[in-house]
Amino acid sequence: MSALNKAILEWTARHHAVVTDADLTRLGVSRSQRRQLVEDKLLERVLDGAYRFPGLTHDELGRCVAACSRPSGLIVAGPTAGRLLGYRRMPRDGFVHVIGPPASNPSVEKWLRVYRTSMIDPLHVVERADGIRLTCPARTVLDLSRHLPDSDLRSVIDQVESERMATCEAIWQVAADLATPGRPWARRVLRMLDQRPQNGVPESHWESRVVAALIERGIRDLRPQKWLDVPGRGPIRLDAAVDRIRWGVEVDVYPTHFTEEGASRDRERDAACDGIGWRVSRVARPALQRDFGLAIDRLMKVFEQRCREQHPSNAPW
After folding, report:
1. Are 295 and 288 in contact (CB under 8 A)?
2. How far is Cα 285 from Cα 196, in angstroms, rounded to an integer?
3. Are 68 and 50 in contact (CB under 8 A)?
4. Among 35, 96, 208, 245, which is most exposed with the fewest C-beta within 10 angstroms?
């Protein structure tokens, strides 16, 4: 009982209730005292060399601390790093994903997923005060390319740039450094970056999907996050726009759009845009979820009509 001193309790409070062999030794707990604490069920094993207090939730953060304590030098990566960084569209798979050096033998725990690689740049690793080491935002995007479909990965890239966690240039550099013949997923990130809009960044997941789908259909000059100066109303921001035909797209995903007050506000806003020669098309999340392809077809029809109206002698593209 006396082995659990105040220093240990303070340490575990800062490290998600996890303490390692090295921590216990440094805090004055001998091996025999450690064994006694385990026998008395005051500590229980998380991984070899890492323990936690029984009765507390065995959550992801505690497992990450334990994984990072391994002598093989594991680093939290992939979907787990994405969850810790607050990325959207992350799978809730119950695993702690890590990267480690080749030939390492970190653990056989069922909740641990290890990807072994020699390409671990110290500059791509973030050291947290709670004992967790994880990949930086740009490297996390790259590792997620092995786990996410195109639409979700593109959405994450947009989020990372929109929230200024990393630049596309930083992501491109990390991907270029790892884009060897044996890593097709790194080349996939490079292709995806090349296909993004030249100006503006979609903010929400559905904006990202709609913008990408319209560009894939051939609207190469689609611009996310377009601001209009509307007399009497000030600046209005459109989710996406094509300047040459004065056409804007709004992707309505938030519940406020579907209230009577919100719908009325949207109509007034669209009318103000119409007053300066801009046509605004709206697409709502229910329509996108019900039949995404059909929703994009309808936007394309409006786009083609708008092209004929604005430039009758030119092709829509």
Report:
1. yes
2. 22
3. no
4. 35
Secondary structure (DSSP) of 247-272:
EEEEEE-SGGGGSHHHHHHHHHHHHH
The verdict on 171 and 187 lying in the same domain is yes
Q: What is the dihedral sign for C-alpha 217, 219, 225, 230?
A: negative
pLDDT of residue 1: 44
Low-confidence ranges of the chain (pLDDT < 70): 1-3, 56-57, 105-107, 312-317
pTM over 0.90: no
Stated as kind and residue range, the H or E segment containing 131 is: none
Q: What per-residue confidence (pLDDT) applies to 200?
A: 87
Q: Is 129 helix (H, G, I), strand (E, B) or coil?
A: coil
Q: What angle do CA 107, 112, 116 make, to 5 degrees?
A: 75
**Quick check: 248 and 279 in contact, CB under 8 A?**
yes
Distance CA 129, CA 145 (A): 28
Nearest CA to 132 out of 48, 26, 18 is that of 18
C-alpha to C-alpha distance for 77 and 277, rounded to whole angstroms: 48
The predicted structure's pLDDT at residue 275: 93
SS3 (DSSP) at 80: helix
Query: Which residue among 194, 229, 258 closes a domain?
Result: 194
Q: Do 14 and 37 sit in the same domain of this protein?
A: yes
CATH number at residue 295: 3.40.960.10
So what's the pLDDT on residue 106? 64
- Is 174 a domain residue? yes
